[in-house]
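How it folds:
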Amino acid sequence: MQIHNLFDLGWTHYFQSQLDLASLESQLPFRVVSVQRNLIDCVGLDRDYQQKHLHLSTYYWRDKPPEEHPTIGDWILLKLDFQPLHILERKSLIKRRSAGRESSIQLIAANIDTLFIVTSCNAEFSINRIERYLSIAAESSIHCVVVLTKVDLCADTTPYLEAVSHSHPELPVELVNATDASTLSILKNWIKPGQTVALLGSSGVGKSTLINGLKGSQEQTTAAIRENDSKGRHTTTSRSLHDLPGGGLLLDTPGMRELQIVDSEEGIKATFADIDILAKKCRFKNCQHTTEPGCAIIEEIKAGRLEQRRLDNYHTLLSEQTRNNESLAERRSNDRALGRFYKNTLKTVRKFKSRE
């Protein structure tokens, strides 16, 4: 990655306003460009305005909750000797409930301007999954563009376009062949200098190929999908930030078929704004929109003006987000209690030692 100033890394007035004159003289902002298990890669300018690439240990944040750990796209304020101070307030954040049984938050990316929701014109396509991504992005007011890939392998792309436009007529959709660089120019219209665009989608939809095409290089490893079910293989195993020749930054993420939604109630309501507006017209305030009399939503479905699928997905996402929030709240409460126990035990030990 080659930068000449912080603007090339996505530095804006939003972050500048968090610093005072004293901070600018004694502190350096660096952006997280890659996150490994024990190391965080950052890029910025030293006090002589020369580009510097740092490898920071995650040890510094070991005692902080997951939401306060650095993630790719973050801006970290460092001392002049490159020791971490704190993370600047985020403009936007994509996160999920961690996969598996453990109830914890996993941060995906921060300070994203535009989200490319990448999906294929094959069996992998799912409007429900697109709406899941839209809800997560809407929680942070991230602008979204649906990118339909593998059009060269699809005889008719009309069903995929209609599926998106029917449910979300205002949502931009771009058709591309990721292996043909000439068709990718349309995506560059969404990537301006200083802007950060993240790619989100399942394995095998062509995210790495898109990045290679936009960069004009073959830095990202790619692999073919399975022909029997159109599912892809994981080729990206960690998140990384890439600068583009014409300016702008692309953030790649590993394929995630399971993106458990959390802390996104307002985002869900924004994605399903039509349903949320209709719900306020129901006869009963606690209407569940199933069999209740005077339900405005049921009337719209019967009249053919609202899809049952959209209502079902709306309920699914709201229920999932409520369930995940409750389990996370319980986990956080237990962590706080455990922290208090350790703190009190340490005080007791120190007290006895002082008497010896």
About this structure: Residues 232-237 have pLDDT under 50 and may be disordered. DSSP finds ten helices and 13 strands in the chain.
